[in-house]
Amino acid sequence: MYKLWATILKDLQILTRDRVGLIVMFVMPIVLAVVITATQNSTFELVNKNKVSLLLCNKDTGDASRELVTAIEKVGMFEVKKVTAGETEKQLSDRMHEKDALVAIIIPPNFSARVDAKAKATAAKALNNLGLQTDTIKINNDSVQPISLLYHPVLQSSFRQSIQGALRSTLQMVQSKQVLKSIYLSLNETELPPALESEIINNQVAINEVPISRDGSKTIPNATQHNIPAWTIFAMFFVVISLGSNVVREKLSGSFIRLKTLPTNYFLALFSKQITYLFVTLLQACVIFAIGIWLFPIIGLPKLNLPTDLAGLFIVSFICGWCAVSFAVCVGVFAKTQEQANGIGAVSIVLMAAIGGLLVPSFAMPESFQQVIKLSPLHWCLEAYYGLFLEGGKLKDILISILPLLAITILIQLIALFGLKRKNLI
């Protein structure tokens, strides 16, 4: 026991001298967690707080275009800036390049006439199907200009689709209102009363948004709940920069050979390193979780809510840390230089994070990647954490993620052992 304690103290002294490794293991993940959580939180709350600037050029003077403008303003997603009808598409583009707005909408001059004609034609078809004879109305679609949606290239595809969805909803509402007016006028020969129009149009079924959870909680997960577990795992695996280099340094300096001459076993030194860096990974988890709980609310980000099963959280953190340490030892065993250990370790972690769902959600990946995802230990780490943080599960609920992670960890340990024997280091 004394030998183990002395070896742990030696490893702690070596660790405290590795300032670059400490920065990579603690400072970098904290910065990533704060910056990325802040960015994603702004995206999640875009509809409620931050609005997209939009230039609106209405070249039409009819009722339908005015209703469309009103509907766009009521969406709540845009900060509408109305421009004169005389502005051209080129002028709007120049204003957008000057960052005056990210989106612009041009309503063509014949918009109201098109909507009115289409509404009358649809109403006529509906009445004919009911056995009521009406005049057939034809629409010349070739002469109708569509609404133009200009967007700045910085907007991503998913965000543009959200904007298009909001615009289509407002268009559908305006068109449906015109159809309703036409049918009412054809049947009653009077205009649709505003009160009845409002009652029919606004009589929508409410949507109750309920996240599924194992503990029955109705709390909607925020950006912090998604990002803190992910970047905690990322931080744990980056111990490879310090531990991998440490193992390589001992090989190159001849420490392995000197250890063979001492009345001890190298397995004791290797076990000491794993205990030391396992403590570091648990400390990383505590630090990042503490930042999510206490610092995030101060800087205006959502607070991290810890899962109810704290024992399960500790076990998951312990196994994730052990897997990270095992991977670092394995890299150090097979790398020939410290540069190789740092390069291979950093690149492999980024790749495993990418295919494991830390950088891109696993459900968004192509079907061909769904089996490759399961090879990444970071995927199982993330699934275990998400089962606690997002789904409100307990330890028994995430065994399906912990068991594969344990199997991968043991496999990595065996590969490292094989490498030590092959190099005659043990």
Q: What Rg do the Cα atoms give?
A: 31 Å
Task: Tell me the number of helical segments per DSSP (H or I, 4 or more residues long).
Answer: 16
Tally of strands: 4
Strands of the largest sheet, in order across it?
Answer: 2-1-3-4
Kindly describe this structure.
The chain folds into two domains: 2-43 and 224-422, no CATH class; 50-197, 3-Layer(aba) Sandwich (abc type-2 transporter like fold), CATH 3.40.1710. The protein is 65% helix and 5% strand. It has helices spanning 2-17, 19-44, 63-75, 89-97, 111-129, 157-188, 194-201, 223-237, 240-253, 255-260, 266-298, 310-334, 338-356, 370-373, 377-389, 399-422, and strands at 52-58, 78-83, 103-107, 148-151. A four-stranded mixed β-sheet has the order 2-1-3-4, with helices on both faces. Helix 3 links the parallel strand 1 (52-58) and strand 2 (78-83). The longest helix has 33 residues, at 266-298. It is elongated, with a radius of gyration of 31 Å. 33% of the residues are buried. The model has no long low-confidence stretch (mean pLDDT 79).
